[in-house]
Amino acid sequence: MKSPHKYFHFFLLLLLLLGSLSLSAQHNIIYRFHHLHQEMVNPATSGSEFIPVAALSYHKQWLGINQSPSTILASTSLRMGNFDFYNPKMMINTSKVKSQERVGLGFGFYADRNGPVSSRGLNMAYAYHLNFSSSSLALGLAGTMEQTLLNGSSWDPTTGGDPLLEAIKDSYYNFNANAGIFYSGAEYFVGFAVNHILPLENKLEPGENVKQDYVLHGGYLFWSMQNIKFEPSLNLRYLDYKTLEYDIRAKVYLQHVHWIALSYRSYKALALSVGLKINRFYLAYQFEANLSSMISYSAGSHGLSVGINLGMRGLEGF
After folding, report:
1. Stretch 181-187: mean pLDDT
2. How many Cα neighbours within 13 Å face the side chain of 268?
3. How many CB atoms lie within 10 A of CB 76?
4. Exposed end of the chain (fewer CB within 10 Å): N or C?
């Protein structure tokens, strides 16, 4: 016989699932990792760092609850121009692509599993950068494709054998576009993005159109000591014309490359993340604690990310 504690976990996850069946809920997965996969939130940030980089993240929510959500995100971003790349033999291979270093490209992918609901998406971003003497302004546009799958047979309730539940199988596709603007200097950045800007039908909610998400983000870098820098930042989101979310983040850089950050998130969560740079790689770990009553039933959410500088020796005119 199942214990009441097991029944509680089942119904708790069921309620969370019912609240997640919307396009904005899928985007919330990406917004939690906005600092590591910027081009998936604001296409104008593609290529903003000049250095071609790639990142891979894995996130597990509500550890301790059966079939709790898990997410994989992967992205890459680069600035097209007169770069010198390393080939696999570590020999210099000069790129033949010339675009005056104004074009940035970004690619992103995510896959999320939440009980019987799974979703995956692709993001292809383009940004055009205008370089000034001490700052840069970029305009970006991205095309997106998202698929949501419902599979009742993968549900693991406390009492199995429900033919109605197991018969639920469906798949939905949503295609749309994102647009953004990004302005940055050596010590500051600010950006604004509108995601899924086309008012197309939301296949998850027949008869309803997809609603826009608005994202405002910015930060400032303070030099407190020779090898220590402090960067407070804010990420403000208005989702689906009804939900206002924000992340307040304080990030400290050590030796210019390693970092530790503390974030407070408006849905009553506190996140601690640490990043280490090792040669051309960086490793990051994130722990998120839910401050609501759910804290008694979950060991928090955990995220692990790895990134790489794909190789760049120099930039002409930089």
Report:
1. 93
2. 6
3. 20
4. N
